[in-house]
Amino acid sequence: MSGHPFGPLYGPGSRVLILGSWPSPKSREQGFYYGHPQNRFWPLMARLTGRERPGTIGEKRALILESGLALWDALESCTIQGAQDATIRDAVPTDIPGLLARSDIRAVVCNGAAAYNYYRKFAQPLTGLDAVRLPSTSPANAAWSMDRLAAAWGEALGPWLTL
């Protein structure tokens, strides 16, 4: 697999980085984060920020940047089957330490176990910054209802959100 299909989304107001593992086939096809229609990331972000669910990439970018957030993935490249994190091989990390050095990001939260594990393995030894592992918004994580996701994500992001 080649390099990451799109880079980090962050701005001068970004204080917390939300990390995924690697973009799904739908996300790569659309050219933006959390592109699968069943992924609950965008409805969750809308709920937590009190905004309308974004539809376009421009609306999604605005929601993230205006809320004090940043988006990226833990991996720059990998070999993967579909969107199954368990099949990831040949993992190459993104330059999270470099992103943190050139931004005002002060916290890292991970969307699921794979993102958390890759952050801890590759980036945390260089950044010294602990990450919060949050339940995945993937449709494969059906055990977590939207209400449970909102509670867990809201607790982690609430202090950082610019509303």
Distance between the terminal alpha carbons, to the nearest Å?
A: 38 Å
The CATH class name reads Alpha Beta
Class from helix and strand fractions: alpha/beta
Biggest pleated-sheet summary: 4 strands, parallel
For the CA atoms, what is the radius of gyration?
14 Å
Any idea how many domains? 1
**Secondary structure: number of strands:** 6
Instruction: Kindly identify the CATH topology.
Output: Uracil-DNA Glycosylase, subunit E
What is the average per-residue confidence, as pLDDT, rounded to a whole number? 95
β-strand amount: 15-25%
| Tally of separate helices | 6
CATH superfamily: Uracil-DNA glycosylase-like domain
Shape: globular
Defining traits:
two-stranded antiparallel ribbon; 6 strands; 6 helices; 163 residues; alpha/beta; 4-stranded parallel β-sheet; Uracil-DNA Glycosylase, subunit E
Structure in words:
The protein has helices spanning 25-30, 41-49, 57-66, 96-101, 113-127, 146-157; strands at residues 16-20, 69-73, 75-79, 89-93, 107-111, 131-134. It starts with 15 loop residues before the first strand and ends in a 6-residue tail after the last helix. The protein has a single domain, classed as Uracil-DNA Glycosylase, subunit E (3-Layer(aba) Sandwich), CATH 3.40.470. It is globular and about 40 Å long. Helices cover 36% and strands 18% of the residues. The strands form 2 sheets. It has a 4-stranded parallel sheet with strand order 2-1-5-6, with helices on both faces. It is α/β, with parallel strands linked by helices.
